[in-house]
Design goal:
By secondary structure, the protein is mainly α. It has helices spanning 11-27, 32-35, 47-74, 83-89, 103-124. The protein has one domain (11-124). The chain contains 5 helices and no strands. The protein is globular, with a radius of gyration of 17 Å. It starts with 10 loop residues before the first helix and ends with a helix. InterPro entries: Cyt_P450, Cyt_P450_sf.
């Protein structure tokens, strides 16, 4: 995406990065409820609560990115042909596929692609 998610002066970038790091931390934390399923409804470690909070924040910021890009496109600004432009323009070709990706599908794909990028960066470095 063209939005600079590494800009230290950007509040959105910082919040998005923190949410993504939280998502990775909570998804990698051992959960006692996996061993004792009857404890799942109590969320003893508050992992579900933390994951819902961070995923909600990441999706909210992805929604902001999407709305900004759609606004730019409506104003007739030049397309960048980055991941976000491609996702907006995707069209299904078969009868079992949607004509266009929904806003929710695009936001999920943005969050997942960023999670994969952050994970690869943390494993392989710069």
């Amino acid at each position: 995406m063209s939005k600079d998610l590494a800009d230290p002066d950007s509040k959105e970038a910082s919040e998005f990065f923190n949410a993504m790091m939280g998502i990775m931390e909570w998804s990698g934390t051992a959960n006692v409820s996996d061993i004792f399923p009857f404890l799942r409804r109590f969320d003893l470690q508050k992992l579900r609560k933390k994951m819902v909070r961070d995923m909600g924040k990441a999706m909210e910021i992805a929604s902001i990115f999407l709305k900004e890009r759609e606004g730019e496109r409506k104003k007739g600004e030049e397309e960048r042909k980055d991941l976000l432009d491609v996702l907006i323009e995707v069209e299904g070709i078969g009868k079992d596929e949607p004509a266009k990706l929904s806003e929710h599908q695009i936001k999920v794909l943005i969050v997942v692609s960023c999670k994969i990028s952050y994970l690869a960066f943390s494993i392989f470095g710069a």
